[in-house]
Amino acid sequence: MAASKPVEPQSGSSLPRWQLALLIGTPIVLGVGAVYLWNRNKTKDSPGKRNGERTTPEGSSPLDRAQGAKNKGNKYFKAGKYEQAIHCYTEAIGLCPRENQTDLSTFYQNRAAAYEQQMMWTEVVQDCTQAVEMNPRYIKALFRRAKALERLDNKKECLEDVTAVCILEAFQNQQSMLLADKVLKLLGKEKAKDKYKNRDPLMPSPQFIKSYFSSFTDDVISQPLQKGEKKDEDKDNEGEAAEVTESSGYLKAKQYMEEENYDKIISECTKEVESGGRYIAEALLLRATFYLLIGNATGAQPDLDRVINMEDANIKLRANALIKRGSMYMQQQQPMMSTQDFNMAAEIDTSNADVYHHRGQLKILLDQVEEAVGDFDECILLRPDSALAQAQKCFALYRQAYTGNSQSQVQTAMDGFEDVIRRFPKCAEGYALYAQALTDQQQFGKADQMYNKCIDLEPDNATTYVHKGLLQLQWKQDLDLGLDLISKAIEIDNKCDFAYETMGTIEVQRGNLDKAIDMFKKAINLAKSEMEMAHLYSLCDAAYAQTEVARKYGLKPPTL
User: Fold this and answer.
1) Where are the domains of the chain?
2) Which H helix or E strand runs over 352?
3) Tens digits of per-residue pLDDT, 499-520?
4) Cβ 110 vs Cβ 70: under 8 Å
5) What pLDDT digit, counting tens, does each position of 426-480 carry?
6) Where are the residues of the annotated region Disordered (predicted)?
7) 266 with 289: CB under 8 angstroms?
8) What is the dotted CATH code of the domain comprising 61-197?
9) Helix (H), strand (E) counts: the chain
C-alpha cells in the first residue's frame, strides 16, 4: 500500500512489540517469581479470604490484636461493608508494631482494596505506596496502585508500576499485560500527536523514495520525461521546436526527480500550480506525493482532493490520487474511508493494475486475506509481468495457511514462492517475502540464502540487512553478526527508522537501556506517520519505565 512499510508476518508471535522489548524468553525473573510465591504462600492476605488468620487468642500481643482486627475487616469486606472494613484495617495498622513490616504492608494493602471498592483512588495510591515502601516487591500493592494511577490519569507512574508487576509475574498475568499495553498505547498516541504536529519535515532517503515509486506501474507522474515534455532549453539544444513557451515548474520538478534532487520538487510544483500552467493536475499530484513522503498529510490532502474532483483530468491521475489518499487514511487508522477511496478508484479506472495491487495490501492489513488474493489476481490478469503482485499473492496465501494451521496449504504457498523466484529472478521483493515465510518455518539456512539474493539485487536496501541481522539472532544466536548487519543498514541509510527501532529493541534485551532509548528517539524523529511515531514512543516509554523499575526496585529482566 502506498506510503507504508512492506506488510510483514508476525513471525509466529502474538505478543505486543513493547513486550518483546522486555521479554527475552519465557522464564523471565523465574527465580525472583519463585521466591516471591514461596514467601506469599507463607502469609496470604487478600481481603475476603481467611489468609494469615491466627489461632492465637486475640489480645495476647499487639500483633495478634492487629491480626484480629484485620480478620474482622476481611469479613466486612466479603460482605461488601467497605466502611466497616476500612475502620478495621485502620485499627490493625494502628495496633501493628512498626517492626512487623510484612504484616503492616498487608494491612495497608487490604485497606487500599477497600478504598478501591469505593473508588477513592487517591487513598488507594497512598495506602499502596505505604505497602510498597515496606515490601518493594509486593505484586498486589503494585498492581492495585497501577490501576488507581490510571484512574487518576497518571500514566507515567502507572506504567512503572505495571512494568514491575509484569517482570515479577514473568509476563504470565494477562490482566497486567493488558494494562501495560493500554497505557503504552495511550502514552504513545498523546506524545505522537504533539510531536508529529510540530515536527520538521524530513525527506526520506533516495532508496526509500525509489522503492515507493516502484510500487506503481500506472503512475503518470513517476514516469521519466518523455521527448515532448523536455524543458525548453533542452529541446532547443536538440534542434526541436519548443512546445512550452514558458518555463514549466512541473517539468523542472520531473527533471529533479530524475536527478534525485528531491528537495526542490515541492517548490517547483507550487510554481506550476500558482502560475496556472498546463500541468496543474500533475503538479498537484506530485506535490501531494512528496508531502506524503515527508509526513505532511495535512498539506497533501487538499492537493489530492483537488485532483480527485477534476473530472476533466487524466483518469490515471485521479485513480492514483485516490490510491494515495486511501493509503493516507489507512495510516490515520480510518479503514472505512480508505476502503471507499480504493473502491472509487476501481470504479473510475477498472483497468488500472495499481488499484488492485494496493487494495490487496490494504485487505491484508485488514485480515481480509481472501479478498486480498482476489485483488492480486486481478492485478496479475491486467499485468501478467507484475512480479511484485505475484510475490504478494503468495505471501497472502501463505499467511492464510499459516494462521489456519494448514500444513498442506503452507506447502502450496511455499511452492508458489519457488515459482515466483524462478519466473522473476530479479524481483527482490519475491526473495524477501519468501525469506520471511522460510523463517516462520524455521528453514533458516534457506532464508539466509534468499536474503543474500535480495542484497545482490538491491545492495542499498537497508531493510534487507535488518531482516538478515534478525535472522542471525534467531538462527545462530549470533549477537555480534546480527548487530553488525543492522549497523550496516544504518550506514547504508541513516534515515532507516526500522534499523534504529530494531537496534533499540536489541539493546533493551542486552540491558543497555540508555542506548536503547537513544535508538528509539532517533527512530521517532524519522517516523513517516503519526501512527508509526506512536508505536515508537511506546517502545521508548517501555524502555524508560524499565530503567525506573530497575532504579526503584532492583528488578531487571535477564539480558542476552
Assistant:
1) 61-197
2) none
3) 999 999 999 989 999 999 999 9
4) yes
5) 999 999 999 999 999 999 999 999 999 999 999 999 999 999 999 999 999 999 9
6) 41-70, 224-244
7) no
8) 1.25.40.10
9) 28, 0
